[in-house]
Design brief:
Structural class: alpha/beta
Mean pLDDT: 85
Oligomer: single chain
Number of helices: 9
Amino acid sequence: MELLVFVLFSFLLLRLLCCISSTFKFYTKLVCYYLVLIIVPLVTIPLSIFRPGDPKNILYNSWVVHHIVVPLFGVNWEVRNEERLKTKEPCILVCNHQSSLDILGMMYIWPLFSPCIAVLKRELLFTGPFGIVSWLAGFIFLDRCNSEDARNTLNTKVKEVKEKRVKMWIFPEGTRNDNSTLLPFKKGAFHIAVQAQVPIIPVVFSSYSSFYKVCEKRFDTGTVVINILPPVYTDGLTTQDIPELMMNVRSSMLNVLTLGTNCNPTKERGRHIAES
């Protein structure tokens, strides 16, 4: 009984402090979020350990995030044009990268395009349960300090994408950016798409700035629109076409991100986007 009273009192005190101080609310929710990123993998690792490297292992985490974590933090995800993700053909998904909250959005829509492997920075492999569960799902970890090694790692996955018909999720900016714009893209995702001759599907998460802003110490409830752009086909493209392909994909994503979520670019082949 005393324990129950203590827990109830602590909960009410936390709620009161969160209402009084937005900074306290920000740090409380952020700490809870990172705790969740540890707890959820601890629950799902035993379910994945007997089939290491299987991309479908991540679906356990997706289910928990979708049904428990998303409602807990009050961040709603609205998916537009989700039918474009439901292809069974291999493809490269490229998405803007704003913060660690991107994990919620990824897991929310992951069942729509599974099986898929994500490309992450190598440091995440050593983040305890999160790194373990990502490794068990066959995710790729790149050393950002060694561009040649990163390039070779990605090149070895081209055959797997094509033959095993898996999709690949890549953040082409290479690092987080919460300024409601896009950093210059790195070429890795586009090299893979051209070498494997598979389409690129751009995914745009709308800005979090209306409810989540680190510099302002603000973490409220809000809605994120996930806009799935038309696939960009790479049939017949060569490495010489990569700079233009990369520029046009970035332009279409930036257009959606900056002008709003109602933008719906026309489906075009990679080499002809600039002509539309």
